Amino acid sequence: MFVAACQLNLILPEGSSLKEKRNVVKSILQRLRSRFNISVAEVGAHEALRRVEIGFAAVSNETAYLETLIQKVINFIELDGRVEIENIDTEFL
What we know:
The chain contains two helices and four strands. β2 and β3 form a beta hairpin. By secondary structure, the protein is an alpha+beta fold. The longest helix is centred in the N-terminal third of the chain and has 19 residues.
């Protein structure tokens, strides 16, 4: 069994309120859960207006599948015009 965990630091360039930020984050998290069947949550920078930290994890019997899945998730987030990826930390267990 292999586990992949990834933490993404995102920037919301047009964030004007915490309410707007939470709506964007909630939307992204729901879309990731439904499309990729991963565990995902906001893990930091909760009170920062234009910064978001999300983490996600997946389990598989093949590391190649996990690497592909991580790249697909990152590509999906990059295509979302509401956020920009600042940093990516990935770990395989």
